[in-house]
Batch of 2 targets.
Target 1
Amino acid sequence: MAKVILVLSDALRYDVAKANMGFLGHLVETKQASLYKIIGELPSMSRPMYETIHTGLSSSQHGIVSNSITRLSTKPNIFQAVKDAGKVTAAAAYSWVSELYNHAPYDPIEDKEVDDKALSIQHGRFYTEDEYPDSELFFTAAHLIRKFSPDYLLLHPMGMDYHGETFGADTKEYRSHAIYQDKKLAPLIMEWREREYTIFVTGDHGINADGDHGGTTSDQRDVPLFIIQPNFKGRGDAEEVVSHLQIAPSILNLLEVPIPKTMKYQPLLLD
Ligand SMILES: [Zn+2]
C-alpha cells in the first residue's frame, strides 16, 4: 500500500528548481524520478493554491480566491479523504494550512502541535513566521514520518518564498536557497524512499524579479513537479506540462482512497 509525502516548497520556481536542485536533478537524470512542468493555476497566490492543490479545484470553484480569506475548506480535500478512509494524516506546514483543514482562525498556542485522530490533519506541526528555518521544519517532518508513519504527509517550507520576497527572485539569495533545500532534502528523500514513500516535490506558485507573485507570467506561475517512487522508476525529464489540479487525484489514487467526484482531473499514470 502506497504512502505519499508532498513537499510543497512555497514559491519554488520551475526554472530555478531545475537549474539548482542537483540531487533531484540526479534522480531525474538517472530516471529514478520524473520531472514535469506545472503551469500553475491562478491567482499565483499562496492560500488559493494550497486549497487548489488539496482539492483539485480552481480558485473560483473552491472560493479561496485571496490570501485574506480565513476559513476552513468547504470542499472534499486530500486530508479529509485520507482521514475518512481510516488512514493517518500529518503535516509540517505554515499556519494557513491549519486554517484550511483543522481550525480557523489559527490559535498559535492551541493549534501549533496537534495529535488528534478526529482532525483532518491528525498530526500537525505548524509555524507562523515566514523566516522559520526550513531545516528545522524538515526535521519535524522526518520525526513525524518515523513516529507515526502517516499515509499522507505535507511538508511545506517557506524559505523560497521568504528569500524571493525579501531579495527578489533574480538574486543569489533566492537561487542559493534552492540549492540549500535540495541539499537538506537529499538524505531525507533517501530515507523516505527506503520507507516506501512516494514523494512529490512541487510549488504553489513562482515569483518574479521584483519579489512578487499573484500575476500570470511564467516566472510567477510555473513550478516543477518531481515524483520519486519507492520502486526507483521514473521517466526522467518528461518534458510534459501537467496541472496543479492533477495532484490531489494522483495522491488519492496512489493511496487507494476513493477520489471525490469534485476532483475531475485524471490522476497521473506512474510506472
Ligand atoms: Zn506561496
Note: The first helix runs from residue 14 to 20.
Target 2
Amino acid sequence: MSDAVPLNDAVPLVDLGAAHAEVAEAIEAGLRRVIANTAFVLGPDVAAFEAEFAAACGVRRCVGVSNGTDALELALRALGIGPGDEVVLPANTFIATALGVMRAGATPVLADCDAEHLLLDPASVAQRLGARTRALLPVHLYGQIAPMEALQQVLDGRAIDVVEDMAQAQGARRNGRAAGALGRVAATSFYPGKNLGAYGDAGAVVTDDPALADRLVALRNYGSPRKYQHPEPGFNCRLDTLQAAVLRAKLPLLAQWNARRRAAAARYDAWLSSADGLRPVRTLPGNEHIFHIYAVRVRGGAERRDRVLGRLHEAHIGAGVHYPEPLHLTGALRSLGHRRGDFPVAEAAAGELLSLPIYPQITVAQQERVVETLLRVLRG
Ligand SMILES: Cc1ncc(COP(=O)(O)O)c(C=O)c1O
C-alpha cells in the first residue's frame, strides 16, 4: 500500500514559518530599530540581548558570537585550552561539538552514552580521563541536560573545567537550574532551527565568571579589550546585530514555546508507549526536557529504520535521524584512530534513531497523522 497523500497534509520536521507568524511584528520592529540607529556591528541590541539571555540562563554574563561552533572554540580558548590538551565529549553528538575542540587546537577524546537517555555516560567518561584532560564537554542532547552531578563526581575535584554544549537546550532545566548555569562556561547555537533560533547563523557563550567573559569579549573582537588595543590575537566572530534583534524578539516566547514542545512530546509519548518495534529515549529524572528533537528508536537496525524513514518521507512526514553516524566513525575524526565497536551504545543508537516532527506550533491533528502513519509503517 502506498502512503502517498496530498502535499497539503505534509508535516515538516520543523516549521519556521509557523513560528515566524507568531513573532513577525516584534521581529520587523527590531530589524527596523537596528536599521534606524545604524549600529550594525555590536551596539545596543547585542548588549541588550546578552543581558537578557544571561538572565534567562541565571548567570552574570553572555557574550554573543557568530555561531555555536565558534562559541565552543572561544569558550575553550578563553579557558586557555589548546594544543596538547584533551577535551572529553560524547561520541553521539553533532560533529560541531568535536570541531569546536579541534579548532581550539585541542584533541577531542570521545566517550560513550548511556542506553536509556543517550546522554554522556559517567562510567565511560571515567575511563577516558587522563593526565592531559583539561575539560569535560557534556552535550545536553535533544534538549535534556546531561547527568551533571554524576559527571562532577567522576571528575572528583580534579582541575578539569566543565563546558556545557547547550546548543540544543536553551531553557532546559535540571533540578530547577537552567542550562548554561551548570558548568564553568557554556556554548550555544542560535541556528534557525534551534529552540531559540536566529534568522541566520548566531551563537553565544554564557558564564558566571566575569573575568572569563571579559576574555571572550576580546577574543570575539580581534583580541581587543579596548579599541586599537591588541594584547593577543583574536578573531572576528561577533554576534550579528540584526540577529540579536531577532533573538530579542523571540526570547520572551522561549518558555512558552518550550512548554508547547513538552506538551507535544507528552502526546507522542502516550500514543507511542505501546507501539511494537519502538523503544523510547527516556528523560533523566530531575530534567525538564525541552524537546529540541523528539527521538525514538526503531528496533531491528539501520536497514529497518531507513525503510521506516523512507516510508514516512513518502507520506510527506519530515522525519529525520540525529545522527546516523557516531563521531568516531566519521571521516573527520579518522585521526583519532577509532574502530567500530569502540562506543557500542552510541553505535547501536545511531542505527535505530528516528526523529519525529516537533515544534511549538505542531497541531494535534498533525501529530495524529505522524503517529497513525508511523504505526501503519511499523506494522507493514
Ligand atoms: C550539539 C551541537 N553543538 C554545536 C552546534 C553548532 O552550532 P552552529 O551550527 O551554530 O555552529 C550544534 C548545531 O548546529 C549542535 O547541535
Note: The CA atoms of residues 107 and 314 lie 41 Å apart.
